[in-house]
Design brief:
This protein is an alpha/beta fold. The radius of gyration is 17 Å and the shape is globular.
């Protein structure tokens, strides 16, 4: 997929022309085939969308939100890694979250990248502004906390990231999940 950032650590920066962008039809076919693997099973399938910034994917009139909802409606739990730049606008975030909550059957797990490389952490204010927007919007939508699961994924290196850990721990205390790369 394409991406709206050029992070120095990302393999997409090295090979921006490689890969392919699947059509909506291709994605639905793959989702249906994957869902078929779990039919009659006690296990639930999960799909982790990646390959750039998934939230900017579009195919004619369809966008990633449509694909996430379709996954959920077919019994496959969608996982969305994102740099969260699409969610920094409260109105856009609200529309995305409200539509997902009203149309989806299963929770959406969002894995937001937050670290110095992505440039989305305010060291001065000790916050992650896009995550603050998502938390605020989610708090205003009934049942959104059950349907929109927020997590931080961060890359911690030996380059003095103690300041970042303090910020992340403040979000973990608010119920946001966390994993480190």
């Amino acid at each position: 997929l394409n991406c709206n950032k050029r992070c120095s650590h990302c393999h997409r920066t090295d090979f921006p022309e490689q890969g392919s962008v699947l059509s909506h039809g291709d994605l639905v076919t793959a989702i249906d085939q994957f869902a078929g693997l779990y039919q009659g099973s006690e296990h639930q399938g999960k799909i982790f969308f990646t390959g750039g910034e998934p939230t900017i994917w579009q195919d004619e009139q369809k966008e990633m939100l449509d694909v996430l909802i379709e996954c959920s409606q077919r019994g496959i739990r969608p996982l969305l890694p994102t740099n969260a730049s699409r969610f920094n606008d409260p109105d856009e975030c609200d529309a995305f979250f409200r539509r997902y909550v009203s149309e989806a059957d299963l929770p959406l797990t969002i894995w937001m990248t937050a670290d110095g490389w992505h440039g989305n952490v305010s060291r001065k204010h000790k916050t992650i502004p896009d995550l603050d927007t998502m938390l605020d919007v989610r708090s205003k939508i009934p049942d959104a906390r059950k349907k929109i699961i927020l997590n931080i994924q961060s890359t911690i290196a030996t380059m003095g990231y103690e300041w970042l850990l303090d910020i992340i721990l403040s979000y973990v205390a608010q119920g946001v999940g966390f994993k480190v790369n």
